[in-house]
From TrEMBL, chain A:
Name of the protein this chain belongs to: NADPH-dependent glutamate synthase
Enzyme class (EC, first level): oxidoreductase
Source organism: Halodesulfovibrio aestuarii
An annotated Gene Ontology molecular function: iron-sulfur cluster binding
UniProt entry tagged with the keyword Oxidoreductase: yes
TrEMBL record, chain B:
Pfam families linked to this entry: DHODB_Fe-S_bind, NAD_binding_1
Protein name: Sulfide/dihydroorotate dehydrogenase-like FAD/NAD-binding protein
PROSITE patterns (UniProt xref): FAD_FR
Domain FAD-binding FR-type: 1-97
PANTHER family in the record: DIHYDROOROTATE DEHYDROGENASE B (NAD(+)), ELECTRON TRANSFER SUBUNIT, DIHYDROOROTATE DEHYDROGENASE B (NAD(+)), ELECTRON TRANSFER SUBUNIT-RELATED
Source species, domain of life: Bacteria
Length: 477, 282
């Protein structure tokens, strides 16, 4: 990108992010982006104009005081910068890595008009990583000492994704006794079973953020399934005065086309869960197996599709195609991830829609039939509709197909809690102001309310519910 | 302590064992038809096993497993007093219990244990329960004594004729259906070919038939779709919609193919495990 010719004063370009070379990283699971050094961070921070009314903050769903933390960074005071970020964001090392900054803070930054916006996400990541090791009590609460935990102010979170972790951090730092119940054997939700290691390291980042919550005396109970092992009523009987439901969006969608149950056709959730939660990339040292695939095709255009494709590449595929029915610029994935994927050799097979999977007599996938598409006129939503070009289909050889076309609400809790009112799409209905559900003192947020969305929106929802809980406990007004 | 193995009994030495596990939170909620997902080690795979019995008073559940590959071999290495690393449940939909008739429960191999809990449920619901159980040979037959406690009739078949009827469970089932029209339901739990054969046997009689499917699972809580099966032309998830389905509607051919999908990798895993163990012992 070049600086716009209309501006007189030229603004220095963004400090580039050092990455693992594409050829190398496409064969390992180590983190792709290596992070700024302090010098780089300070140089990037110095590009900030310190706007009086910073637009970037408005673009941030949890309203991190971005201009303030950047100002601290310019002075070289990383610790202060960290305290500023932590005052509203409990998982900055995660957000700095996975937030779609280009449509949030960076998208709103005034410098967009004059060139490149400040690399806010990279700065957030730098600051968070520097202070990963600091005492959780000081940092999460932004208070001088550990809070006194009042065993009476009992709060339960169901599910352990970013929405619940935010509720836990917010309330524990204000003296509530929080217990998080998780169905799987690891804590973190999509952060551990969905988003791959090369984008979000599990041990160094997610586990550390969770560890900080444990320091705040948050209890984590794994292998406990809401709706099965326990009900909301059980929790109330056990003295929980507020309950937050953050169970995510769950159940994968399929394409509903012939041949979809051939061996070799996976949902992205299964594929990524085997690899991330089951560490299948270290098979057979870990026991969960994965079919590696020689000619891999991935369906969808979001972050999930990018993650699945890049995972397949790392597992040693010869070719990986991402099949998407619109054009590449209409892909909903983060720009950075699409760029990284292409650099790693992934082929974008756009304007194509799968209509049938074919297999051999043993039921193993061998190929896919694709329908060529073209972009039609914009519909009511303003988005152009992809239309099939009649009669134009073609075959693509594939022995591993990964379907990443979204999810539906997981029924396991909802079916067993009939009092929980759902909206017409089957997600939990909540009060917009408080995030309370139709059951008093039961709140919900994250993907189970909005449908598959983003980490930061889930955190924003958690924060809203936590605030209301704190208010009712008389901790906050 | 959580998930502690209170009792271990080798039903068929080296092949099938029964564990009684301390899990009050699961025992309190478990119903016939439910299963658990467990993991034995940090590097372990999540595997589903049916809850074969529960004791709510003592807060225990019973599981019976066949040593097949690496994960069940690791489970078999645990002894009384050891703890199971992760134990999650009860999962799956509970058996639908109809009342007022004869229910025939057919079990094959390790499936007899799973069938036992379902049969018990039907008995407690007030049905006349007939058990038909089969194995390759006499020594591999499970739960005969336990079933006799509440089943007025326990019919037995062995492939080699070493005990009971010489032949298949479906022979006994067919004979029974021909002479008894009080049968309101047939339940089958066992290997896929057996469940397919039972469903085929009952079809001409129009007897409602329930099978408990053992599709491959990863999370077991409806998140991955690994367990999907085609039932009546629709895709269902065995872990949340099942594991029990209408046997007349299940696409058994597809299920068999999907179960084989990982077999070569599982063999690799098992061999790797054996190799490592041998090295440990050196
Ligand atoms: C592959 C992938 C890549 C993504 N990439 C990005 C990205 O780059 N940037 C971004 O912002 N967002 C991304 N997202 C989306 C983001 O991860 C989600 O929006 C976010 O995690 C939602 O958070 P949540 O708190 O609602 O729940 P989740 O993270 O979905 O966690 C829910 C947790 O609840 C547990 N649970 C479910 N049911 C029960 C129950 N009955 N009892 C107990 N526990 C239960 C689940 O096991 C899970 O651990 C991605 C998602 C995926 C799948
Ligand atoms: C709902 C349900 C209930 C079950 N109940 C019982 C039970 O009560 N007792 C019992 O002995 N077994 C039961 N099974 C089967 C049991 O889960 C498998 O035998 C076990 O996972 C095999 O693991 P392994 O590592 O020892 O063998 P592996 O080497 O992993 O597999 C051996 C063979 O088992 C099949 N298999 C592998 N993984 C699974 C899986 N996750 N689910 C089902 N089949 C698989 C494959 O066809 C494979 O070829 C049940 C399965 C399901 C889905
Ligand atoms: S909008 Fe951009 S330039 Fe202005 S304060 Fe925010 S980051 Fe700095
Ligand atoms: S095992 Fe994952 S959805 Fe059933």
């Amino acid at each position: 990108m070049t600086t716009s010719s209309k501006t007189k004063k030229t603004i220095a370009p963004r400090v580039p992010m050092p990455n693992q070379p594409a050829g190398e990283r496409a064969r390992n699971f180590k983190e792709v982006a290596l992070g700024y050094t302090k010098e780089m961070a300070m140089q990037e921070a110095s590009r900030c104009l310190h706007c009086k009314k910073p637009k970037c903050v408005q673009g941030c769903p949890v309203q991190v005081p971005i201009a303030d933390f950047i100002a601290e960074l310019v002075k070289g005071d990383v610790e202060k910068a960290y305290a500023v970020i932590k005052s509203t964001n409990s998982l900055p090392a995660v957000c700095g890595r996975v937030c779609p900054q280009e449509i949030q803070c960076e998208g709103a930054c005034i410098l967009n008009a004059k060139g490149q916006p400040i690399a806010i996400g990279r700065l957030e990541r730098f600051v968070a990583d520097e202070y990963m090791y600091m005492d959780a009590c000081d940092l999460i609460s932004a208070k001088p000492e550990c809070p006194y935990i009042d065993e009476e102010k009992k709060v339960a979170c169901i599910g352990s994704g970013p929405s619940s972790l935010t509720v836990a951090g917010y309330l524990a730092s204000r003296g509530c006794k929080v217990t998080v119940f998780e169905a799987l054997h690891e804590v973190g939700g999509v952060l551990v079973y969905g988003i791959p290691e090369f984008r979000l390291p599990k041990k160094d980042i997610v586990a550390k953020e969770v560890g900080a919550l444990k320091d705040l005396q948050v209890d984590f109970v794994t292998n406990y399934v809401g709706g099965k092992t326990f009900s909301i009523e059980d929790l109330k009987e056990q003295g929980y005065k507020a309950i937050f439901v953050g169970v995510g969006a769950g159940l994968p969608r399929f394409l509903n086309i012939p041949g979809e149950n051939f061996c070799g056709v996976f949902s992205a959730n299964e594929y990524l869960t085997r690899v991330n939660l089951g560490r299948a990339y270290q098979f057979p040292d870990y026991d969960t197996p994965i079919i590696k695939g020689r000619k891999v095709t991935v369906y969808g255009g979001g972050n999930v599709a990018m993650d699945a494709a890049r995972t397949a590449q790392r597992l040693g595929a010869e070719t990986v195609h991402i099949v998407y029915r619109r054009t590449a610029d209409a892909m909903p994935a983060r720009h950075e991830e699409i760029e990284h994927a292409v650099e790693e050799g992934i082929i974008l097979e756009v304007l194509a829609n799968p209509i049938e999977f074919k297999g051999d007599e043993k039921g193993n996938l061998t190929s896919v039939t694709l329908q060529k598409m073209k972009m039609g006129e914009p519909d009511e939503s303003g988005r152009c509709r992809p239309l099939p070009i009649e009669g134009e289909t073609y075959e693509l050889e594939t022995d591993l197909a990964v379907i990443a076309v979204g999810t539906r609400p997981n029924p396991i809790l909802l079916e067993n809690e009939p009092d929980l009112k759902l909206n017409k799409w089957g997600y939990i209905e909540t009060d917009e102001e408080t995030n309370e559900t139709s059951i008093p003192d039961v709140y919900a947020g994250g993907d189970i309310v909005t449908g598959a969305a983003t980490v930061i929106l889930a955190m924003g929802a958690g924060r809203k519910a936590a605030r209301e809980i704190a208010r009712r406990f008389g901790i906050e007004d | 302590m959580a998930n502690k193995i209170l009792k271990k009994e080798q039903l068929i030495p080296g092949q099938t064992s029964k564990l009684v596990i301390d899990a009050p939170h699961i025992a309190a909620k478990a119903k016939p038809g439910n299963f658990v997902i467990l993991r034995v080690t940090e590097h372990g795979e999540r595997i589903p096993l049916t809850i074969a019995d529960t004791d709510t008073e003592n807060g225990t559940i019973t599981i019976v497993y066949l040593v097949l590959g690496k994960s069940t071999a690791l489970l078999e290495e645990l002894n009384e007093g050891d703890e199971i690393l992760d134990l999650c449940g009860p999962l799956g939909k509970a058996t639908q219990l109809h009342t007022g008739g004869t229910v025939i429960c057919v079990g094959g191999g390790t499936g007899i244990a799973a069938m036992h809990h379902i049969a018990k449920g039907h008995h407690q619901a007030g049905n006349h329960v007939v058990a038909i159980i089969g194995a390759r040979t006499k020594d591999l037959l499970l739960f005969e004594k336990e079933l006799k406690e509440f089943c007025p009739e326990v019919l037995i078949s062995t492939d080699d004729g070493s005990y009971g009827h010489h032949g298949l469970v479906t022979d006994l089932l067919k004979e029974r259906l021909e002479k008894d029209d009080s049968v309101i339901e047939v339940v089958a739990v066992g290997p896929v070919p057996m469940m397919a054969a039972v469903s085929k046997t009952t079809e001409p009689f129009g007897t409602p038939t329930t099978v408990s499917l053992n599709s491959i699972m990863v999370d077991g809580v409806g998140m991955c779709g690994a367990c999907r099966v085609t039932v009546g032309g629709e895709t269902k998830f065995a872990c949340v919609d099942g594991p029990e389905f209408d046997g007349h509607k299940v696409d058994f051919g597809e299920l068999r193919q999907r179960l084989a999908a990982f077999s070569s990798l599982e063999k690799e895993s098992f061999e790797h495990h054996c190799r490592c163990k041998c090295n440990d012992n050196k």
